[in-house]
Amino acid sequence: MGKAFILENTPLSDALRNCEQGGNAAECLNCGICSSRCSWFEGQSGPVPRKIVRLAQLGANDLLANSSMLWQCMLCNRCTEECPVGIRMDRVVCKARSLPQAGSLIPEDIKTGVKTRLEVGDVNGLTEEEFVETVEWLSEEFADEMGDPNAVIAYNQKNAKFLYLPNPRELGANVLHLTAMAKLFHHFGQPWTLSSKHTDVTNWGYFVGDDDVARKMAHQVVQDAEALGIDTLVLSECGHGFFVLKTLIEELIGRKPAFRVAAIAQIVLEMTENAIIRFDPDKLPEPAAYHDPCNLGRKSGVYDAPRKLLDLCCKQVIELTPNRRHAICCGGGGGILQDSTSKKLRMVSGKPKADQIRATGVKYLATSCLSCHRQLTELCKHYELEVQVDTVASLASKALVSN
Amino acid sequence: MSEFSYTVLVLGGGAAGLSAALNLHEQGLRVYLVELEDHLGGNALNWACMATDACEHCGACLGAELIDKVTGLEHVSIFLKTRLNSLTKNNGRFEASVTGDKNLTIKADAVVLATGFSPFDPSLLSSLACAESEKIITTAQLNQLIKMEKLHTMLGENASVDIAFIQCIGSRNRKLEKDYCSQVCCKISFRHANKILHLFANANITIYHMDLQIIGKQFRSFAKKLSDRVTLKQGVAAEILQDRVKGKVTIIHEDETKDARQASHYDMAVLSVGLQPSEKTAEISKMAGIAPDGWGFLSGSAQNLPQGVYTAGAVKGPTSIVEAIQSGAIAASRLANDIAASSKSAGKMPVAVFGGGSDAVLVCKELKQAGYPVIALDSGRDAALADSGIDHFKDAQALAVKGVAANYQLDFRTGKQIRSEKVGAIVVATGAAANFEAPEGLDRHAMSLDAFLEMKPERIPSSVVFWLDRHGPEWKDYAGKTLEAAAKMAGEQKRVYVLMEKMLVHGLGRQKDYDAARKKGVKFIRVNEQSGIELAVKGKQVEITAPDELLGGQHLCFTCDLLVIPKRIAPAGETQRLASILQQSVDQEGFFQSANTRHRLIGSPRRGLFFAGACHDEIDGFDLKEEIAAIKAGLDALFLNKTGNGQPPVIGRQTCRQCLTCYRICPHRAIILQETNKPLIVDQACFGCGLCVASCPAKAIGRDEDQDEIITSNENKAHTFVFACQRSGALAVKEAKRLGLELGDTVHIEPVSCAGRVSIETMLKPLFGAAKRVLVAGCHNGNCRSGDSGEHAQKRVRFIKNELALSLSELDFIPVSANEPEKLRKKIP
Ligand code: SF4
Ligand code: SF4
Ligand code: SF4
Ligand code: SF4
C-alpha cells in the first residue's frame, strides 16, 4: 500500500468533531451501513461513503481532497439515513469540499456559477434589466393566454401575500414553467410578485461547502423579501434550494426570517384544501409515479404534500419502491447535474433510479424539483424508458379547473 | 421457619426463571412460577442445538432439562399462559393478581423478575421493512428452521448455498436507542455458521460485521477454528435488495480492493438480531417499583432493588443461556440468604481456596462473609493475599486431594511442614500469569497498561498510544480499561490513539464508553496483521506506522510520548500440576475449564470443586463477583442437598471383587476406597449416571433392592426399542410430543440415567425379544454430563456390531440433544 500519511488533529477533523448536528465524523463506528445504501448501488464509479467519513475522522485532508469521491457524492444522504450515530453525509462531504486543497476539484461550471451569482444575483448571469425585460414580455403573453387583463406577472410589488422565487431556468430555457406557475398564482386570487433583485432559488454555496458563500446568497434572498414586506416566500420546485432556504436557513443566517417559507407544492395544496382552487383529474387519466427529491424528502421531511397534491390532480398515483426516507437519488444531486461535463457519469449514477422506474412500468413520472426533472428526463431517454416526466406543480397547473 | 412456608413468586419461566425456581425449591422455599406463554423454557426452548460432531456448548438443551427438573416438583406451582395484572405489597407481603385459565391472587413473600428478552424485530429498521422475503430471516427464525430440520427443504439438498449473516441488527445503534452490544449475537452467528457448514458441506458463508466481538476464551478458540471456513467482511448492510438475480437476495458492500462498492448475491440472508427487554418488562418493573435503565433493562445492582424483589437473567441485560441459568441460581441464593441471614453460618463446612492473588482475596472475603470457614493456600506467587490480612498458609503447595464433596481431605505442604485438612469444598482461584515485555529497544517508551493505570495523573504525557491485541485477541478486561482511560485522557485534550484488531465492548455500558471515546477524539486504528506495525524511536517520541484496515491497508503514521500495552495473559505456572492433583482437564490454552457446558460456568464434574477468576475464564471485576455469588449458591446447594444429583447405586458387599474398575471409571470421582480397599459410592458426590453399574465386570453394582433396573422386557412388543438418556434422548421425546411430532406406536422409549448406564447385555436383551431394532439415544460428545460416559455406550455399540455383525438398522447410537426432537423422530423409522 502507498506511503503513510501523518495522523494528527487537523482543522477538518476538529471541525467535524465539534460539529454537533450530524457532522461529527469522529463518532463514526465504521459500521459500513452507509456503504450498503449509497444511491450509486453497485455502479462502477461513485463514493464509498464509509471511507469518506473514515478519512474525515482521521483528519486525512490531502487524501480526502484528492479523492474523486468528493464530487461524485450526490449529497443525497441516502447512505446515512440509517447511520447508527446520526452522521449526515452531506455535512461531511461539504466540509471536505470546502478544504483549500480541494479547490481544484470543484467543477468549472460550479465555480463560474457561484461567482456570477454573487456578482449578478443570478447563477446564469441574468441581469436586472434582462430580468425586467423577460418578465414584462412574459406578463403580456400571460394576460393574452388567460384572456384576462388582470392576469399579470408582477415584480417588486410591496406587501404582496406571495413572493415567488423561481429557478433560473424559468427565466431562460424553461419559461413555460414560470407561466404555468403564474396560472396557479392567478387562481389563488391574492397578490403575488417576483423580485428583480434576487431572481434565483438556487444556492451553490451549499454545493461547494462554503458556509460564507451560502450565507451571502441566502442573505440576499432574505433581505430583499423582508424589504418587500411579503407574507410568504414561495420557492420554485428546487430540492437543494428548499433545503437551504427552509431547512437550513436559521442555522445559516442565525435567525428566523420575518416571513414564512414554503414550497410551491405546499402552497398549492393549501389552496386546494381551503377550497380556493380545484382540479379535474380526468385531465390526467394515466397513473403517475412520484419521485422524492432527496433534498425535499429525506433531507427536509416533505413527503406528503407533493403526494397529496398529485393524488388530487391525477387519477392514480403509484409508489416507487423504496420511497420516502429510502428513496433513490435521481443521480443528479450534489452539483453533478450542474456540471456540464458530467452527462456520462450521471447516466451511471442514475442507473439504479432508471431500473427502479422501469420496474414499476409507469408511463408518467412526477417530481417536485426541476433538477431531478431534468436528470430524470435525460435518464428516461438514455435508458429508452418511454416515460414522460413532469413536475407536480406543473401537473397541478395542467389539471387546474378555471372558476 | 418451617420448610416450604416461605413463598416466592417467580415471573418468567425461561432459563433464568426455571433456574431460580429449581434452586429456591432446593432451599426449601415454595415457588409460584408464572409464565405468559403456553410453555416453559422461554427463548432457550426455541433455540436449536448447535452440535456438529460434538457439542458446541451453546447451552440451548439446558433449558429443556430445567423444564424437566422443575415440572412436577411438589412445591413449585406452574401457571402457564398467565398474565400479571397487578402486584402490590401489603404488610410486607406481595399480592399478585394474575389471569390465566381463571383469575387468581397469589400471595408471596418475595418476587423474582425473570422476564427475559425478545429478539429485536428487524422491521423496526425501516430500510429492512420492505424486504419481505422468505430468504431474509432472523437468527431466531434460523433456530426454528434448524430445530425443525427444515433448512434442507428450504435450501435444497447438497446445494452449494451462499448464505450471508448480517450482524448488529438492532444493536450498537444510538438512533434506535439501542446503543449497547447484545453480547451474544456474534457467538450465535459463528455457531450457526459452524452448524450450517456441518449440514451443507458446500455452503459458502459470509459474515458481515461492524467489529466482531470475539469475547471470552471459549469463543476465541472457536472463532479461530472457524475463521478459514467463513468469509468475514467488515461492514454491515442495512438494506437487502431483491430480484436482482433470480431466487437470490443481494447485498451491496465495499470492494476491499478499490474505492468502489460491489454486489453479492445470496440464497439466504440471516439478520443477527439483538436482544431487547421482553415486551412486558416495562409494565412489570413498574409494578415492582424498579426503574429500568435507558434501554429498558433492569441492570441496576441488586442492592438497589426494593426489599423482597430480585432479578435474574436477560431482563438485567443481554446474556447467554448458560449465564442466565447461573443468574437464576444466584438470585435464589441471595434470596435464601437474605431471609435466613444469621442462622445459616452455624455448621457450615470449611472451604479450601487455592491462590494468592486478587481473585483469591475476593473469594476468601466473600466466603467468610457468607459464614464459611476458609482455608487459604497461598503459593506465594502473588502478594495480594499476603497483604490482605486474611489468615492463610504461606508458601503452600497442594499434594493430594482425596475424598469427595463435603468430605475432602486435602494434603499440602506449607513451608517445610506437611499438613492435612478436612474441607467440604474447594475453590480454585489461582489467577493467571501476566507478563509485560516492551517491544525491542522501547523499554523507556513503553509500559504495561496495569502500570499506566497506577500512574499519577500529572505524570501522564500528552500523547499516548494504547496497543491492544498484540498477543492475540485482547482480554476483555484490558479492552474495557483501555476505553475508560483513553476517553478520560482525550477529555483532558490529550492526543490518544488505540491500535487494535477489534475493539471489544464487553458488558452493557461499554458501547457507550466506546462512543464517548470517539466523540472526544480518540482515534482507533484497526490493524489485522500485527507484523505490519512498525515502531521507531524519534528522539523522545515513538513513531508508529500501521496499515489501517478501515482504509484498505493505507499506512498511517503517528507519534506518541508513551506506548501502553496490556500484559500477556497465560495460565499460571502451577495450573498443570494442580489440574492433575484435582483430576481435572485443562482447555486448549492451558487454563482450567470444565469441558462440559453442564458444569459451567463455575462448577466441575467433581462435585464441590469450583473455579473462580482468571484461572479458568476471561473475566472482569463484574464477572468475578457473579462467579463468587454463583459459587456461594453452589455451596449452599451442595450442603443442603442430601442426595446429590441423581439416584446413587450401591456396591454389593458380597459380590464386589475389588477390581476397582468403578473407582477408576467414575467420571465424577464419587467412589472412594475404604480402609479395606473396598470401593464405596458416596451419595453426595454421585450424579447417578450408572456408568459403574454397566461397567462392573462382577455385576456387583446396582440399585438398592434391584427393583428399579432398566426395563428391557418390551412387553408391548415394540419394533424399535430406544434407550433414551434422561437429559437428551428422553427429553427430545417429550419435546416431540409437545410439538405434536408422532413417534409411532411401534416404538418403546425407555428412559435411562445416562447412555453409559446401558451395558452390552442391556442393549442386546430387547433384540432377543420382539424388538427388530435397538437405539441408544444419548448426548452429543462433549455434552454428556458424566464426561465420556456416553462415549462408553458408543464403544459398546461398535463392539457389538463388529462382533455380531449387526447392521445399522438393528443397533445404533444416536447423538441427540433435548432440543432435537425432529432429528430423533427422523432417526426412528
Ligand atoms: S453509517 Fe454512520 S457510523 Fe456507520 S460507517 Fe457510515 S457514517 Fe460511520
Ligand atoms: S451519493 Fe448519496 S448515498 Fe452516496 S455517498 Fe453521497 S450522500 Fe451518500
Ligand atoms: S448438546 Fe446442548 S449445549 Fe451442546 S450444542 Fe447441543 S444444545 Fe448446545
Ligand atoms: S459412575 Fe456415575 S453412578 Fe457410578 S458412582 Fe460415579 S457418578 Fe455415581
Q: Overview of this structure, please?
A:
Chain A has three domains: 11-105, no CATH class; 109-270, no CATH class; 278-399, Rossmann fold. Chain A has helices at residues 11-18, 49-58, 61-65, 69-72, 89-97, 108-120, 128-146, 175-188, 204-207, 211-228, 239-247, 249-253, 264-273, 304-313, 343-349, 351-360, 370-382, 392-399, and strands at 5-6, 162-165, 192-193, 232-235, 260-263, 288-291, 317-319, 364-367, 388-391. Chain A is an alpha/beta fold and 403 residues long. Chain A starts with a strand and ends with a helix. Chain B has 829 residues and is α/β, with parallel strands linked by helices. Chain B has six domains: 7-116 and 278-342, FAD/NAD(P)-binding domain (3-Layer(bba) Sandwich), CATH 3.50.50.60; 122-275, FAD/NAD(P)-binding domain, CATH 3.50.50.60; 346-431 and 573-639, FAD/NAD(P)-binding domain, CATH 3.50.50.60; 437-566, FAD/NAD(P)-binding domain, CATH 3.50.50; 650-702, Alpha-Beta Plaits; 720-827, 3-Layer(aba) Sandwich (Rossmann fold), CATH 3.40.50. In chain B, 28% of the residues lie in helices and 26% in strands. Chain B contains 23 helices and 43 strands. In chain B, the strands form 13 sheets. Chain B has a five-stranded parallel beta sheet, with helices on both faces. In chain B, helix 11 crosses helix 17 (621-640). The longest helix of chain B is centred in the middle third of the chain and has 20 residues, at 321-340. Classes of the chains: A alpha/beta (403), B alpha/beta (829). At the A-B interface, strand 1 and helix 2 of A face strand 14, strand 15, helix 15, strand 29 and strand 31 of B. The structure holds iron/sulfur cluster (SF4) (4 copies).
